[in-house]
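Here is one chain, start to finish.
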Amino acid sequence: MTTRAGDRSDGTTVWATPAWRERATAWADDELAAQGVRRTGAVEQPHLRPWSTVLRLPTSAGSVWLKAPGPGLASEVGLYPVLARWAPEHVLVPYAVDAERRWLLLPDGGEVLGRRLTPEAADRWHLALAGYARLQQRVSRAADLLVAAGAPDHRPQRLTALLEEVADDAAAVTVTDEEREVVARARRERGRVEELAGVLADDGTPPTVQHDDLHRDNVFAHGPRVFDWGDAVVAHPYASLLVALRDTAAPYGVGLEDPRVLAARDAYLAPYGGPTAATLRVVEAARTVGILSRTASWLRALAPLPPHEAADVREAPYRWLAMLADGESL
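Its structure:
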């Protein structure tokens, strides 16, 4: 993780300018025209965040979205073509990709699942989880391609080194004594991480794409299709349940042993053979080491940002790392 604040030729100060929007729009217009699609109205910029921005283009084919991730999440640009090739029914298939400028041109996915507390919404979430598991199974054959395309390599054999990398990167930007203590305690979990990595390696389930932020606001109801792959890594697939199960539990205010959460877990595991005792042991190992991926993702996203843009969320990687250090319930 070497990109730091000041290394950027984009970011909110650039993305907010008319000149950048004009360049991005011109590229999108050309790419769409080559595919028989024309823009029909003014371009909007509904999202402008420190780590990415999005433009919405009304076109003859409906809304089209131009996404520009920052350098910390740039791997998403390389991942989309691989995912679209291997599992097109589970993701948005890009109109175009510009890897050098980190631009993605995507069709509209429709309504997201969201956090509706109805039986029908739960059924859609279960369907999405099962579909996502099938995507992972298919894409496992392309794991090396995903790493070559830019996905961080968090496969079991890399986890001990990943702990040290995450701790080093977190230590380099600590501000408070509490943050420094979290990093020190996380380093002392090396033995546990080695043990859990062994559990994952012995399991035999092939590593694959692991979205790393799988929640219902990142899933389109139609399909369902998963989007927003900027945090994705190549890892043991079950690590995706770290976020997915917490997201399932949160709206109800319940723990992870609640039947509604277990139903979501089991829907995800169905394509993998269901929740056997052996599988559940692997699930817990994957979810625990998945904390390292979440921490690393936040550090990647925040590293290029100037302090004033990172201020509101700079504590996020330490909150995740503290869960590993404290052995907190996931």
